[in-house]
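User: Reviewer 2 asked us to show a designed sequence for the structure in our supplementary figure. I'm pasting the structure tokens here. Could you produce the per-position amino acids so we can include them in the response letter?
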């Protein structure tokens, strides 16, 4: 007989570990809580340092108010806070913290050290907490607070199992840091790790300048900054100009009273606002800051305060739409090269122009087809000449498909998708010496900080594929050469798109494939490009060579075959 388990109260040390899990999921949560405490303390400078993505050590120092010696021990007790006195204060809260849980939670699952001196006191305090034991001592240091968190989760091995790879945890940590920095332009921030790449954000004059520091000049120059307000709320935002759209939603974020929040309807609202200018699969950047009386939002529905409840969602939605509208209705200059050829009346083109567009595309394809010139290719070349072709090219339709007659079939080839496949295969072919083409003008690409780090982390993969690329400054990348298979392309646009695409990805193989697939897509002849007969031949030759999978890198088939029998059936013969 099994004994019926009895109900009992858990000891404090167990309950505190359980509730710590709600506040501290991973190193990024510690960073969020500590940086918010520094901001709440009126700091003008906040420095974050990580060792081993924060698992070994996280240090956050500030030059804020400091903690009174008498209060220091209390700060690490559960539900101890200086920020509210009673339940009514929660309604009008204008600090990040108020639950008084962060320091105590962190203390229960790490070695915590606090060094602090209050601005009104001569002497400071050092506090060491481990396994529930608090050891205070005197400390002589500057005004402000340094919190050191070591061996996070040392006593909750289960938590450790749920952590992502060190690179991913580091990325989360960086994202969390940047989100905290975004809404506080008057504060200087720094982020250091044992790697050489660090982030430093000097004090900025306003939000717009801070966003420029974080997202880079390239992005800021291609965005509108707008602001509207009424008696209830003010909304400020950075919005993509219509030609500057991204292939992911990674640059969309709403802040409410400077708290980054997950607002479910944001992406929907933005796609509505950009309906007229954004093609399918393209998304605007939109970083929005809503300032609203604190009693009109409830931030207390989630322990990490990630979600908020709004007094009137419809009203906020209306505000976001109005601001986007205001930004988009600005008279703007669209650079000439962003017009897609689809908008050009193609039959009316001068012969000159056509041959110009065709010539560069032809050069591309032709080069790709003839390189690298190895024995097998020589043989192929020879075969080409002596072997009578068993197909004939009939032409192209809709500037998108090549029509080929082969044996008893009519083949339609989607030339963009086919071209994509051939370039892709060329890129992922692991050859020791990939052909490169030097860019006439080296390209410096200024990236949003988060994306810069993502690209910088993947430089080896780019190199392996034939890019000559390196870190140029702490937020820009220099490109000297691209793989020859890519021909002429806009490498800036390509790198920005790759950055956005691989940002959430942690599996190296997927990152590698994404780089190759996007490069191929950018380099491939587009629907609307005019192909010469020679280009069509090269494509068809490759299609029928049997050496390629007849699907684009995303998996869409690019050859459709109509059999003679099918036609007979259609015409009921
Ligand atoms: P909360 O932020 O919700 O009040 P915390 O556990 O994060 O709770 O912090 C407890 C208290 O410790 C704070 O209310 C504040 O008084 C003090 N404190 C924490 N960090 C700092 C800091 N960096 N500078 C000054 N005081 C701090
Ligand atoms: Mg706090």
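Assistant: Here is a per-position design you can include in the supplement:
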């Amino acid at each position: 007989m099994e004994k019926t388990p009895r109900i009992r109260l858990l000891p404090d040390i167990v309950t505190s570990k359980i509730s710590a899990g709600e506040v501290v999921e991973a190193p990024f949560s510690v960073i969020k809580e500590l940086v918010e405490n520094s901001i709440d303390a009126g700091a003008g400078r906040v420095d974050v340092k990580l060792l081993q993505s924060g698992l070994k050590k996280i240090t956050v120092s500030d030059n804020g108010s400091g903690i009174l010696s008498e209060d220091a021990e209390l700060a690490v007790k559960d539900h101890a806070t200086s920020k509210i006195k009673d339940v009514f204060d929660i309604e009008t809260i204008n600090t990040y913290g108020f639950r008084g849980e962060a320091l105590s939670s962190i203390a229960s699952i790490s070695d915590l050290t606090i060094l602090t001196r209050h601005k009104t006191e001569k002497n400071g305090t050092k506090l060491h907490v481990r396994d529930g034991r608090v050891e205070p001592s005197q400390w002589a240091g500057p005004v402000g607070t340094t919190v050191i968190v070591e061996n996070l989760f040392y006593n909750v091995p289960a938590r450790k199992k749920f952590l992502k790879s060190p690179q991913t945890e580091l990325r989360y940590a960086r994202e969390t840091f940047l989100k905290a920095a975004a809404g506080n332009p008057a504060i200087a921030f720094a982020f250091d790790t044992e790697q050489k790449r660090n982030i430093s954000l000097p004090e900025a004059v306003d939000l717009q300048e801070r966003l420029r520091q974080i997202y880079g000049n390239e992005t800021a120059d291609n965005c509108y900054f707008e602001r509207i307000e009424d008696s209830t709320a003010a909304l400020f935002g950075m919005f993509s100009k219509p030609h500057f759209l991204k292939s992911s939603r990674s640059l969309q974020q709403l802040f409410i009273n400077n708290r980054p929040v997950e607002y479910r309807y944001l992406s929907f609202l933005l796609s509505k606002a950009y309906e007229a200018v954004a093609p399918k699969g393209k998304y605007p950047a939109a970083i929005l800051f809503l300032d609203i009386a604190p009693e009109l939002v409830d931030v207390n529905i989630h322990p990490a305060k990630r979600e908020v409840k709004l007094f009137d969602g419809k009203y906020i939605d209306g505000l976001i739409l109005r601001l986007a509208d205001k930004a988009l209705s600005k008279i703007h200059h669209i650079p000439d090269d962003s017009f897609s050829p689809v908008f050009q009346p193609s039959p009316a083109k001068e012969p000159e122009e056509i041959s110009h567009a065709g010539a560069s595309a032809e050069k591309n394809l032709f080069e790709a087809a003839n390189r690298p010139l190895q024995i097998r290719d020589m043989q192929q070349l020879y075969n080409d000449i002596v072997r009578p072709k068993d197909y004939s090219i009939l032409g192209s339709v809709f500037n998108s498909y090549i029509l080929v007659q082969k044996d008893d079939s009519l083949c339609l080839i989607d030339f963009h998708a086919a071209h994509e496949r051939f370039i892709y295969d060329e890129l992922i072919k692991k050859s020791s010496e990939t052909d490169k083409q030097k860019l006439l003008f080296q390209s410096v690409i200024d990236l949003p900080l988060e994306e810069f780090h993502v690209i910088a982390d993947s430089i080896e993969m780019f190199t392996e594929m034939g890019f000559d690329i390196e870190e140029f400054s702490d937020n820009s990348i220099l490109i000297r050469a691209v793989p020859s298979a890519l021909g002429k392309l806009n490498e800036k646009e390509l790198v920005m798109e790759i950055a956005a695409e691989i940002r959430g990805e942690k599996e190296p193989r997927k990152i590698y494939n994404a780089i190759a697939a996007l490069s191929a897509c950018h380099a491939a002849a587009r629907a609307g490009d005019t192909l010469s007969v020679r280009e069509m031949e090269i494509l068809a030759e490759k299609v029928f060579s049997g050496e390629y999978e007849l699907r684009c890198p995303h998996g869409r088939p690019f050859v459709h075959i109509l059999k003679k029998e099918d036609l007979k059936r259609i015409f009921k013969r």
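For the response letter, you might also mention the following. Residues 33, 36-37, 97, 102 surround magnesium ion (ligand 2) (CB under 6 Å). The first strand starts at residue 45 and ends at 51.
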